[in-house]
Amino acid sequence: RKEVEQDPGPFNVPEGATVAFNCTYSNSASQSFFWYRQDCRKEPKLLMSVYSSGNEDGRFTAQLNRASQYISLLIRDSKLSDSATYLCVVNRGSARQLTFGSGTQLTVLP
Amino acid sequence: NAGVTQTPKFRILKIGQSMTLQCAQDMNHNYMYWYRQDPGMGLKLIYYSVGAGITDKGEVPNGYNVSRSTTEDFPLRLELAAPSQTSVYFCASSYSETSGTDTQYFGPGTRLTVL
Question: What is the pLDDT of residues A19-37, one digit of tens each?
C-alpha cells in the first residue's frame, strides 16, 4: 500500500464548478498535512496546510479526518487559473520528511 | 531573498558521465532535501540533511551522493549516470528556529536526461 494515495484524475470541470479531491495516508503517526499545487513543468508550491478542525482559504477548504486517515480539498467557483496538479502531502513524523502523493490533475474548462 | 536556487536548469549526460547538481538557499533553513520526480509520479526523496555536516538517505539514494558543508548549500552528485536517472530533480528546504514549520520550499528544478 502506498503511504499516500490520491485519485490521479484527470478532473475536467467547467469554470465555476465545485470540485473535491480526496487523499488517504497510511502512517497513523503523521502529524502534519498539506496540499501543494504543481503547475506543468514547475516546482511544487504550498497551497495550504490542513488542520484537524478544518480550514478555509478563500475558495479552498481542506479537511482532515484522523480516524479514517483521510484528507480532502474542496475548490469552489473554479477558475481557469486553478488548472494544475494537486499534491497531497503528509509528514513522516521525523526529520521533517514529507511523503508526496502522485497528484490529482485538474483542468478547468472555459 | 532568492529562496531556493538550483543550477543548471537543464542538462543532457551520456551514460557513465558524472555531474553535480547545485542547490542553495538563503532562508537560513536547517533542513534541505533532494527529490526526483519521474513523469506522472510523485516526488521521491533521494537524500536529506538536518544541518551542516549531517546527511542521510531517503527512499531512492542509490547512484547519488550529497554533502552539506554549509547551511546554505546542498549539492547532489551523480557519479556514473544511467538512463534510469533521467528525471526532474528538485531541491527543497524547510524549518528555521523562527518559523518552526514543516513547510518545504522548492527550487525550480533541474531537468536531466541521460542518453
Answer: 999 999 998 888 889 999 9
Is the pLDDT at A85 greater than 60? The verdict is yes
Nearest-by-CA chain A residue for B6:
A43
Residue B90's nearest CA partner among B63, B66, B110 is B110
pLDDT tens for B19-35 read 999 999 998 888 999 99
Set of chain A residues whose Cβ sits within 8 Å of the Cβ of B50: 95-96
Q: What's the angle, vertex CA B4, arms to CA A6 and CA A89, rounded to 5?
A: 15
Across the interface, do B31 and A43 touch by the CB < 8 Å criterion? no
3-state secondary structure of A80: helix
pLDDT value at residue A94: 61
Q: Is B21 exposed, middle or buried (0-12, 13-18, 19+ CB in 10 A)?
A: buried
* Shortest Cα distance, chain A CAs vs residue B108, angstroms: 5
Distance from CA of A100 to the nearest CA of B (A): 6
Residue A92, pLDDT > 90, answer: no
Cα separation, A19 vs A82, in Å, equals: 11
CA dist., res. B65 & res. B60, Å (int)? 11
**What DSSP designation does B73 have?**
B
